[in-house]
Amino acid sequence: MMEKKESNITDWDKWTKLISEEYGVNLDKTDQETEKQKRILEAALHFFAEKGYSGTSTSMIAERAQVAEATIFKHYKSKKGLLLRLVIPALGKVATPYLIRSVLNIIDQDKPLYQLAQEIYADRVHKIEANWDKVRLILVESLFHPELREALKNHVLKAIYEVMSERIEELKAAGRIRQDIPTHALIRSFMSIALGYLIARNFAPEIMAQGKEEEELAWMAEIALYGVAGPAEKELWREKEE
Amino acid sequence: MMEKKESNITDWDKWTKLISEEYGVNLDKTDQETEKQKRILEAALHFFAEKGYSGTSTSMIAERAQVAEATIFKHYKSKKGLLLRLVIPALGKVATPYLIRSVLNIIDQDKPLYQLAQEIYADRVHKIEANWDKVRLILVESLFHPELREALKNHVLKAIYEVMSERIEELKAAGRIRQDIPTHALIRSFMSIALGYLIARNFAPEIMAQGKEEEELAWMAEIALYGVAGPAEKELWREKEE
DNA sequence: TCAGTTAGTGAGTGATCACTTACTTACTTT
DNA sequence: AAAGTAAGTAAGTGATCACTCACTAACTGA
Fold first, then answer.
1. Residues 5-34 of chain B: which lie with beta carbon within 7 Å of strand C?
2. Fold of domain B96-227
3. Which ipTM was obtained for this model?
4. Residue A164 contacts residue A187 (beta carbons within 8 Å)
């Protein structure tokens, strides 16, 4: 297991190095930035998220950041380099064992599954909502930039899937998660419910996410674990099972 | 109920008229189109879906459609007009009672809920997969075009929600759907599972949608109705209930 | 027959695009 | 204090953008 993680990290590092050389972006020293660099990144994220990468011009970014357009190109060789500077470090954080472990720490607690599910939903939803602009940017732009799509799939999604499926298998063996459905479908559905909630919250809360966040998270955990069926249909199911 | 539907249609018609005048697009005679017009629409959908609206130039469309660039503007006054010509009739079909009723026809059958859920999933997934490019285009561009977002929310989503919630309430009253969770959360979670599947299929099938389509749809219905919890946790739940 | 309409286009339009060049300013190093 | 270096920018660059104009060709109805 340790080896697996290390090889993932190496893959990720190799990939970032390759990309950063191709586009001439420095992805290492993301902590020692000028005031103006920070303003450029803020402005870029603002417009990329609102209008999309293609719908944003470097002059718009320069104006909002109150810098000359040439300053942008001084620091991030190209417009795409700027996008990658925003997106890749964010992906790196997610792919990192650190963040994945925060979910595992919840799963490994000795509590009823319902409480674990609710805690996981709360943890992920809060983290994603706090960075909703960036998450949306990554998801949308991965549709149009093949390298981003690859990274999201082969580094982030795969890492999450591998770590989660390990625990799901354990829970299956303990009879705490149903064994008649493949792990990937269980994970996908569990995550879909959170994704749907996030979209609803940000797109049409007054129709599809009317409750308080706490309540919604509790309902999501209820549905994910026990389904939407009422007592009458549950009886049918019990009969079918036996 | 009849009145409600009619008023929805009127709203939709009013809205389309307003928009088509604002952007000078003819959205009525979508069936009597020239050969070249069809080629333009095909090329536009192709690039809009692949590169996004902003990432597509009218010259690209003209080249693929094998027409002069000016021909595009002869028929669709502006680039945005072309987008709306692609998107609005498609939205209209979804908002139409006809398509909504195809789901209701399934619900109204006298079968176990599990079979109904599976049939609904199959019906919607197949229809959406057949038009995946267009669906993706609508969802993505609604992020960047406020009028599209409004239309999707206030005409399509609302219409679907109202019709579905009516049936859910009935099923709740009959004890076939659980009554302790609000309708909007039930509908949202049910639809989220399908959305998640569609995304997985088109984005990372080898990780998150490994099964045959038939199998996946059955698993989705199982999870939506009865949840992911295994027998051990179901016992906990039954105790909690009593 | 001929005026009116529609489909279609080649050759442009100014505006804006991402990006470069040549330069100044300010700070650091020796 | 001299030399080097990084930050920052005004003023461009050619290419491409969405869109227009003036025109031809083909068809339609009176």
1. 34
2. Tetracycline Repressor; domain 2 (1.10.357)
3. 0.91
4. yes
